[in-house]
Amino acid sequence: LVMTHGMATIQGYTPTEADGIDQKLQLHYFSRFYLTHLMAPHMKDGSRVLTVLSAGVHGRYGNFDKDFALKDGSYSIKNAADAAGFYTDAGFEGLAKEHDKLIMAHASPGFVNTNWGTEMPTLIRMALRPLQSMFGKSSEDCGEILTTAWLGISEPGYALIDDKGGIIGNGGLKHTAQERDVIWAKTLEILPDL
The whole model's pTM is what? Predict the structure, then answer.
């Protein structure tokens, strides 16, 4: 299972109609967690899960215990990005713990020359596209780097993969085991059907 869906936008807090969770947080974290949580019990031992977002790159979102869904005044573009990465690390580490025969990884793609940012205003996109073509790696190169690293992980569990294909391991995690458990519980509160 490989999940790369996402969006880049500078819009403010934009709740989804179904549950009021910010679109970016819903897309980058909750949808990936939900899909994996539903599929993992049906996957064979040794199956692999890769979520591509911000492994080892995102900051620590420190207000997760008081404003988990960013609805109560903590929202900013930076907090939304940090929360998505921080929750992904904690949530997927929790999934790997619960499904301990699977190989799960969170990867950071780095700067890639794709259509990333299509949701951005025109002026930002116009500035971004030349930078992507000059400095971004191709999506093919990125895919090869991350896939090679991901397939090279031989032991079940959870790992982080950097943009050069290095295995960061759990040393790159920005949360504690206790914080992981809080994030796990809060995620399940928001997604009660799990």
Answer: 0.89
